[in-house]
Every structure is written in C-alpha cells, then in structure tokens.
Specification:
mainly beta, two-stranded antiparallel sheet, 110 residues
Length: 110
C-alpha cells in the first residue's frame, strides 16, 4: 500500500503511510532522502565599516581590507592622511604652503 521508504501504520482501523525518518515526499508512491542545503555563506566586506582613517580609501585584498591615502595625501592610512601642508609652518623655512603643497614662493614674484 505504501511507497518506497514509507511505513504503514494503522490509526482508528485505517492504514496510514508516512515517510521513514530522514525521508520526504509522497508516502503513497515514493519518499526521497531529505537533502540539506549547504549553509549560506555570508559575504563579508572587509571595507564595511572602513578600517581606514580620514582621507584614506579601503580596497579589498584577498579577504582583508587594505588602506591607502588618497592621491597627494600622506601619513598612516589606518590613522589619518593629510596633505603635504596646511599652513606655512608645515613646510621648511625656505618654502611656503600654497594649495596644500610646499613650494618656493619666489618664482614669478621677484
């Protein structure tokens, strides 16, 4: 009366088919071995949240986040990156800070 991998039991004088433990399907025709789906692999982004300091960008390298300063900025990209200069005192005494660069202020003025 029951299908493959199913067992018959009597309940209130009526036969009842159930799939065997570990099987699923139609117990009157055929039960199949339950298949378990592999666990979902969560894709983790090592750059979210960013491990980088200010003015730095994170790039994925293998399964880790790698930080680097944005162009024309310097410093430790995991702490903070800054331009070459912000004020004149960031430069040697023979240079001036103009547009975040230490340059010779003389050309074109003398």
């Amino acid at each position: 009366v029951c299908g493959t991998h199913a067992t018959c039991s009597v309940n209130n004088h009526y036969p009842n088919c159930q799939c065997d433990p570990g099987y699923e399907g139609d117990p009157f025709s055929r039960c199949y071995l339950k298949t378990t789906l592999p666990p979902k692999v969560e894709n983790i982004d090592p750059c979210n949240p960013s491990p980088c300091g200010s003015n730095a960008v994170c790039q994925r390298q293998r399964d880790a986040g790698s930080c680097r300063c944005i162009p024309e900025y310097f410093g430790d990209p995991y702490v903070a990156c800054r331009p070459e200069c912000v004020v004149n005192s960031d430069c040697p005494s023979n240079k001036a800070c103009q547009r975040n660069k230490c340059i010779d202020p003389c050309p074109g003025t003398c």
